[in-house]
Amino acid sequence: MRDLRDAEARNSAKFRETCKASSFGLSSATGTTMSDAALALQNDYPEAMRGELDKKVYTRLLLCSATATAGFFRSTLAELVPGATFQEGHSTPPSDHPEVLTITFAPVKGLERTLAKFDEYSKDGTSQWPVTPQISDTLRAKIQAPNGDAFADVTNAILSTFDVREGNGRFKNNLMTEKHQPPNILLNLILRPPGMPPMTAEVQCYLRSIEQLIEHRYYEVRDQL
Which domain holds residue 128? Predict the structure, then answer.
């Protein structure tokens, strides 16, 4: 995978610059996804019930907001890259148009996975109350770029369109990682749909050659089970 990344960096000056970009922002999205009215519910219950309110009520409100915001998220990305191919699901099958961007929208995260994430954040000892607004990937999309220029262009377009900056989203550059993981860029966006509270969404950007290698290995492992 690193060889594929390095080959693209040799071919694309834009991609080389993107590889050098510094990460910024927090992985959580505290202060978003919960309206003032929702947070005010705490005033109606004893403080000892805050944990129950957070896990049993706020998580469900989060998923309601995600469902209501999903159309805005998808349409905004569609307008950003009008020539892209759009797909639904968790994985990205081979594209009929390998020369263009492919955007795959995952389903809104389900309640079971949201509660598991809640428990994960609750146990790490660093989460502030409420925990629920720190769950930032109930809306997710994955972008496959056919080459380094397209990768850099779509990354910069997302940063600009969604005003991703310190204090307003997250940019995590994993392109030059030494960890055992695929080189990519992870973006947490703050969506502001009309008439709705802010909502976070996660976008992962890959080179198509790397993502197809990941998918190929996944199917090889699955076929051996």
Answer: 2-224
